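Tokens for chain A. Residues wanted.
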């Protein structure tokens, strides 16, 4: 049975609807945006957009579809829990592991492993995504924040939306980037020709990636990317957009990929304020072994 929430705006706040609803419901801003994208949030009987600014006397209807529960059995994956307390944990996700189940997912996910190793996980994102605050792609390795209760979850999501978290990635890209520093400010949305892909599109959502060159090779560059926004496939799309797609990327790179494990992209650093103490915390993890191996080949001048 679908859940239906009706809210009448009592004052002319001029807040974006996605931000406004985070204060009026228990839904995360990410979940609200998903419901908007699927036309499950209506304003005065009409579908809306995330940037719509609410007005006095607007009738907002939030329809939450019944969520099909997947088989979420705890599985011992021996995940590397980098940090854990009663509110949050930080996990180093291995390459090749999907974060949470989807309609097309048949394999175990990070959620299955978290359920085995973590006693409590927040429930804001629904029964299929306990504890999940943000995601990285299946073939991207690295650090993720996980919430152990709803208060922590709301705090971490708020920090992501307000761009106060610190997230650094390491990526290997095709071509030699001449500039030591760069900033890519280009909106991202669904590719008009291929719905499985994202692309830089005029009517997309704001997306900003900063990068700096770490090391140059013959035909390749190792870069560090800092995200100001968190769009789907953001680094992969932005680096392709400037002519330097990620090595090993089967979706945005050359048809003949290098390696068998997907794009060489690693979330090396995550920093945030603790939801309870407000203390700034920062964690780092080095790139995985297969990434190190390809870099060593490049340093020796070998072909990859």
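Reply:
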């Amino acid at each position: 049975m679908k859940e239906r929430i009706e809210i009448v705006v009592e004052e002319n706040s001029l807040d974006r609807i996605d931000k406004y609803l985070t204060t009026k419901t228990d839904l995360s801003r990410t979940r609200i945006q998903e419901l908007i994208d699927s036309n499950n949030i209506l304003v005065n009987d009409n579908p809306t957009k995330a940037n719509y600014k609410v007005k006095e006397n607007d009738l907002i209807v939030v329809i939450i579809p019944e969520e099909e529960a997947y088989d979420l059995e705890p599985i011992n994956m021996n995940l590397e829990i980098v940090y854990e307390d009663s509110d949050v944990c930080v996990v180093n996700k291995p390459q090749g592991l999907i974060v949470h189940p989807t309609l097309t997912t048949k394999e175990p996910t990070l959620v299955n492993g978290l359920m085995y190793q973590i006693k409590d996980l927040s429930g804001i994102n629904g029964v299929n995504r306990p504890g999940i605050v943000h995601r990285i792609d299946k073939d991207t390795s690295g650090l993720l924040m996980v919430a152990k209760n709803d208060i922590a979850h709301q705090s971490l999501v708020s920090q992501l939306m307000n761009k106060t978290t610190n997230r650094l990635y390491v990526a290997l890209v095709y071509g030699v980037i001449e500039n030591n520093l760069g900033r890519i400010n280009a909106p991202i949305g669904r590719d008009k020709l291929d719905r499985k892909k994202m692309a830089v599109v005029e009517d997309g959502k704001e997306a900003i990636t900063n990068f700096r060159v770490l090391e140059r090779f013959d035909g390749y560059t190792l870069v560090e990317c800092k995200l100001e926004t968190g769009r789907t496939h953001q680094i992969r799309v932005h680096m392709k957009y400037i002519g330097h797609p990620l090595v090993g990327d089967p979706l945005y790179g050359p048809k003949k990929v290098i390696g068998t494990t997907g794009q060489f992209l690693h979330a090396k650093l995550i920093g945030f304020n603790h939801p309870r103490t407000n203390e700034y915390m920062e964690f780092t993890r080095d790139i995985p072994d297969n990434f190190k191996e390809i870099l060593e080949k490049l340093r020796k001048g070998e072909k990859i």
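Residues 150-161 form the longest helix (12 residues). The chain has a mean pLDDT of 90.
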